[in-house]
Design a protein that fits this description.
By secondary structure, the protein is mainly α. It has eight helices and no strands. Helix 1 packs antiparallel against helix 4 and helix 5 packs antiparallel against helix 7.
Amino acid sequence: MNNNKSCTWIFLIRLIVGIVFLSEGSEKFLFPAELGVGRFIEFGIPMPEFFAPFVGVFETLCGALILFGLLTRLAAIPLIIDMIVAISTTKIPILIEKGFWSLAHEARTDFSMLLGSIFLLIVGAGNISIDALIIKSKNKENI
């Protein structure tokens, strides 16, 4: 695959991952009873008044960083942790109670975001990013 096509694919994955995390993080503040503190209480997550906004800030901030391609690899790390915790606390009980196919249905976005974040941790932001612009400007300074 030539470099331009791979950069386009990386950009599209960044777009998907960034938008989903940016929106999910924001929704924890916009709809706290359903998607923030209330949901954390429902799942039995300890200290929900602390952890719901904490997670919301990380999802919003890291989602925006990934969307713009700034500090992409660094931003992917807390999102990977976020998705592992989300899957283990909200989806594993579904597996135990309802079986594999219910888990597969309910966790499709979680697994997609986990794998997308792992991909971005490995490959970085690509050439269509602020990270790439910073690297190019540093390379010009060194010439």
